[in-house]
Protein: 4-nitrophenylphosphatase
Organism: Calocera viscosa
Amino acid sequence: MARLQTAEELSKLLDYETFLFDCDGVLWQGDVLIPGAKEALALLRQHKKRIIFVTNNASKSRKAYKKKFDVLGIEAYEEEVFGSAYATAVYCSEVLKFKKGVDRVYIIGMSGIEEELDTEGIGHSGGSDPEDLQAGPYTLDQFKEDPSIKAVIVGLDQYLNYTKISKALQYLVRNEGCHFIATNDDSTYPAKDGILPGAGSMFAPLQYILKRSPVSIGKPNKTMLDCIVAKQHFDRKKSIMIGDRLETDVKFGIDGGIDTCLVMTGIAKEEDITGPNASDIKPTYVMASVGCLTQLVGST
């Protein structure tokens, strides 16, 4: 694990051809850009580096992420964005072989999952359905069987309620063949002034009830990286993953045979890498912020 602080040390990163970036906590916090992030990405593009944005946030589709990049003034393209919502939709269509127009899923999540499922031709209920957004008590006589539901998908849901959890539970207990899928298992995600509950917190009630863990698609799981490599065809040995979490971003790179760089602008803290209870997960490099790359302006 090497610290990158000086321009000479940071120049090592220019030896890589492909840069995979987490977004929340690395490029921005909430809707606020990390200082120097925009300039750092522009620098890498000037050096003809391939850039891929890899996010576990399933609340937004690739199209929605592109709009966020545009608003923040960052050059980015939809095909460069790989979110867990997209990977989950691909998993349903390509791995589980759900039949388009026939098989459906129930969603605890937001519009990002719905939009990506739509692109794969997979029907869905739950999510943003007005019927499922109403808070209040839920009784079993309200549940309507839907034999076309083949999976329950859980992602970040800022409108999580008792109704959604109750419906998801019924599908999972009444149909032994119903797949239990999580877009990712992040317990939290970084916000401007702290942390908020993540997708892992959303499926925890069902996991506790069922004594069963979902298949998790997002980082650090291999499914996500295999999907990216299949689409982008890059050399893992000449690639680096830059993220703010040891247990997701860094482990994702290590398990996938990719070098890693931890930034300290999100979830990870100094004691996580150097303290007496430091994690066993060790990044290849550590730098304070992605903005540190701006020291390389003018490098050749």
User: Anything to note?
Assistant: The domain at 98-216 is CATH 3.40.50.1000 (Rossmann fold).
